Amino acid sequence: MSDAISDTSDTAAAVPAADLPNLLIASNKIDGTKVATRDGDSLGSVYSFMINKRTGGATYAVLRLGGFLGMGKSYYPLPFEMLSYDPATDRYVVTIDRRLLEGGPSWANNPPEFNQAYADRVSNYYGVAPVDLSLS
Amino acid sequence: MSDAISDTSDTAAAVPAADLPNLLIASNKIDGTKVATRDGDSLGSVYSFMINKRTGGATYAVLRLGGFLGMGKSYYPLPFEMLSYDPATDRYVVTIDRRLLEGGPSWANNPPEFNQAYADRVSNYYGVAPVDLSLS
Q: Where is the PRC-barrel domain (chains A, B) (predicted)?
């Protein structure tokens, strides 16, 4: 932690963060965050996070990708644990093969109800543990 | 978990969730989520969550409250752990005294840079553990 960032005086709140990205992002500013492949190629951007209201944790990230097979923009939900944040470039890196993503659950114009069944479908496709979305 | 929610067939994704709230909320739909006091009185709404880009966790919730002392809408950041989600009413309940909130860090027209110094100020005010926002 740098001295500038760890400064806890009230006045420091007014100091611009210069060129350092901020580790916090407002939920209404997530749209557009860049996403790259592990090779560093631009893949698309984050459209939204699907957030567990109880825990506050981002459970899925919905990526917006364009140009696959000549079609328009499509939306690809991905388990959040498959994204890693790279502070050096202030973007996410996805460590799966692009073709795996292209074959995964997605939509173009009609977003699904992101309920237990759909969440299970996404988790199953990517081979991660299912998320319990029951309310009780 | 009810049978309806635990159904994992693909076709179930198209079934409307009826009157049950969904545990997941899209980050671009958080604005407007209701917030009540522990007595059940309406307090305001969530404007946004401040999300840790690395962990995906909501670290602070920014509440939008109006009418304090006759002024317009103001924004009050609160450590996320001070909110609890009530699925019965699909809203958050804040367990602190309203006057404590009114005296806390807030802004009206000029949002602060939500950096380490500001985050520490919020955490200190509410007496919760500081959050490390260093990028390294």
A: 26-99
N- to C-terminal Cα separation, chain A: 40
- Enumerate domains of chain A plus CATH numbers: 35-126 (2.30.30.240)
Question: Number of Cβ pairs closer than 8 Å across A and B?
Answer: 199
As a whole number, mean pLDDT of residues B68-94 equals 88
Q: Using CA atoms, how far apart are residues B5 and B15, in angstroms rounded to an integer?
A: 10
Question: What are residue B78's DSSP bridge partners?
Answer: B61
Which of A11, A23, A81, A107 to probe by mutation at the B interface, max B CB count within 10 Å?
A23
Question: Model confidence over B15-68: pLDDT tens digits?
Answer: 344 567 899 999 999 999 999 999 999 999 999 999 999 999 999 999 998 755
Q: Whole-model pTM?
A: 0.83
Query: Residues B74, B66: contact at Cβ < 8 Å?
Result: yes
CB nearest B59 (choices: A16, A24, A114): A24
B20–A135 CB contact, under 8 Å = yes
**How far is the C-alpha of B74 from the C-alpha of B53, rounded, in Å?**
25
Q: Which ipTM did the prediction report?
A: 0.82
Is B24 an 8 Å CB contact of chain A? yes
Q: Nearest CB to A1: which of B53, B80, B132? A: B132
Q: Which amino acid is at B21?
A: P
